[in-house]
Amino acid sequence: MMISEHRQHVSIRERRANSLVTLMVRFSLRLFRILGKLVPFVILFLRDRRRFLFFGRSRSISREAHEQRARKLRDVMLALGPTFVKIGQVLSTRPDVVPQVYAEEFVTLQDAVPTGPYREMIPALADDVGYHSYDDFDPEPIAGGSLAQVYRATYQGDHVVVKVRRPGVKDLIETDLRIIRRLIPLVMLLAPERLQFSLRNMADDFERIILEELDFEREARMMAEIRANFERDGNEPVVIPRVYHDVSSGRVLTMAYVKGTKVTDVDELEADGHDPSEVARNVANAYFTMGLEHGVYHGDPHPGNLAVDEEGRIVFYDFGMSGRFTPAMQNSVVNLYLAAVNRNVDGIIDELVALGALDPDADRAAVGHVLELVIEDLEGSETVNWQQIISEVTGMLHEFPFRIPPDIMLVLRVGSISEGVLRQLDPEFDFLAAAQTFLREHGFMERAARMKLEEMRGELEASLWALLRLPTKLERELDARAEERTQAIVRRQQQDSLSLGYALLAASSLIGTALLAAVDLTYALIGLGVALVFIILFLTSSGRLSR
């Protein structure tokens, strides 16, 4: 029995040791692959700053050269797999980190991931929900992404779509995240100082975002919440597919199949009797409603995730990238927009700080000057769009500790991508004008005005109470000052009395010394010493008094 238990413990230790070795080998191989792919680009970017890496002047690179480099970097990200595809997608929404030419190229990563064979998906289906749970399952994927693939099936007589996480993708991403955490200090060392604030925060945010997107149970909860919000409103032309929770898990998500026309198929929409301009307004209003009223919103509005059903309702697919606003963030977003409309630079700075986009210790005067320049530039433009505003603001705030928090990043992504989608539906669509109309029609303007009035009233009440308490405080202060003066007078009188005592004693000692000199010289010298002591004490006390 003892021998058997010993062998079992040895076997467990050996398996752990082998597993550790396997992880170390996998980590090392992956690290070398990543470095081999990305180091050439790092060298190129460093040479742009210093022609000879560590010295020399910066190089001037044409836009065509940057476009070519961006395409190559995009292909490298695609080759490195889901983590770097997702990094590219995130960077496509970060004009505070990458130049616009790279952001535009990284957007195409969304639709560039090839689908994988169906047999690789069977283990997740079998282990999590039971392979035979579905009445029928079409092995041909209808959509694919960096993290999952989507299939059509039938469940309990209902047509459904099944989203299945790619095999091994979680282990690969966790390995990549460990590598990225170790490379971040080196990246920070090489990155320009103006980017370090954004990069440091983006690295922390990215890990949370990608791990959340891997969790299909979270996605199911977000879908259910957003669906319930719209159902509660009752009159919104929006469809959120129902989730079948009994055949869903962390790796498998089963949803109702909702047929619709792709939102950018303008000809087909018109053939079905739908007005593309009205569709554009409905999409925009749905996003405004989710973000500003419900606080939970769909964060991936590329054309493949938006459709229009037979009744003209907007259908949303894929809630992996979804976000949440707190009431404070909702108020800050509305106030930021209102401050921008009113050209209130101080208000803009206050809301940027409240949203966590700007460091509270930033030089407000310098930031305000930059924002004034941005407003002047935009006012001088004939047409102003969302993307232009974001590019202007982030471009000019690069020199400051400015970052885009993950939730605000999703908002910018929604704004920039949906604006492009909506202008395919209606070339004249004005995203900012639509936002202003929504805010006005839904009472946000009045709500913001009321909040401002309440804030001013609160400040006025506080000022009045302070004013009412002022006489009491003033009386206490005067009493305290009078008490201090009384004590000072007493101390001065005591000091004067002490000095006068020393003076009298010194005079008495001198007189005594003079009398003793005629009798005995020894006593006279002693008396003189005593007199000198009293003279010194008198001078010291007098000097302390004068100070």
TrEMBL record:
Keywords: Membrane, Plasmid, Transmembrane, Transmembrane helix. Residues 136-466 form the Protein kinase domain. Pfam families: ABC1 (PF03109). Signal peptide: none annotated. One of its GO terms (molecular function) is ATP binding. InterPro entries: ABC1_dom, Kinase-like_dom_sf, Prot_kinase_dom, UbiB_kinase. The chain crosses the membrane at residues 500-517, 523-541. Belongs to the protein kinase superfamily. ADCK protein kinase family. This is ABC transporter.
